[in-house]
Enoyl-CoA hydratase domain-containing protein 3, mitochondrial
Amino acid sequence: MEDEILKVDVTDGIARLVMNRPAKLNALSDAMLAALTERLTTLAADPDVRVIILAGAGKAFCAGHDLKEMQAGRAAPDGGAAYFNDLFARCGALMQLIPVLPQPVIAEVQGIATAAGCQLVASCDMAIAAEGTRFGVNGVNIGLFCSTPMVALTRNIGRKAAFELLTTGQFIDAARATELGLINRAVPQDTLEAETRHLAQTVAAKLSAAVKIGKRAFYEQAQMDLAQAYAHTGRVMADNMLLRDTNEGINAFLEKRRPDWA
C-alpha cells in the first residue's frame, strides 16, 4: 500500500525496506522507529532473507528525528525529559540492532542523510549513495549537538573529520563521504537502485552461513585488542571450516566446479 510507513519487498533472498514518509523526508518519527525495529527483528529470524537493503522514498533518504514530534513532547509535566530519554534509547536500540542482524544491511542513499539519518547510514554494514547526496550531523545548527549520531559516525570515519562535522554542522557530498569511509561509493542517481541491488545480489550469492558467521565476528573483533582478535577469529574460522557446506565449497573450488550447497 502506498500509505504504508515502511514498504517491504522480498525477492530472491533480498529484502528491500523503503521508508515511506517522503513529505516528512522520511524522518525517524516514533512510528518509523517502531516499524523499522519490528520489521528488522522479524527479518532477522527469516532464514530465506540473505541481505537487507534500506532505502527512502522521495527526495531524501532520512532527515533525522521528527522535530515537530519532539517539540510536542515538551508539553508533558516534566518538560519532555522522560519522552526524550525514551526516544533516544529507542533510536539507539535500532542502531545497535543493525550490526547484530545476521544479514548484511546495505543503505541505499539519495538526497540527504542528516543527523539521525546520517547515523542510520553509518550504522548499516555498507552504503551506496547517489552522486549529489548530502550528509551531515547538523543538529548543532539548531542548538542540539548530535551526540547519539556521533557514536556511529566515529566508528566509521576519523575522529578529527567527525568532530569537524559535529561542531560546524556543515554538510559533505557523496564524494567526500566516500573518501572518509562513511559510504562505499557514489553512483549516478539513475543507477542507484540497480547498483545497490547488484551489491546485494553479489553478497546473497555467497554461502549464507559463512556470511552470518563473518558479520558477527567482524563486529566482535573490532572491540578487542590485537591478540584477543586473532585468538577469537581463529576459533571462528575453525568452526567455519567444520561446516558441511564449507567443505563442499573448498572441494568444488579444487575440482573446478560449482559448489552444491544445501
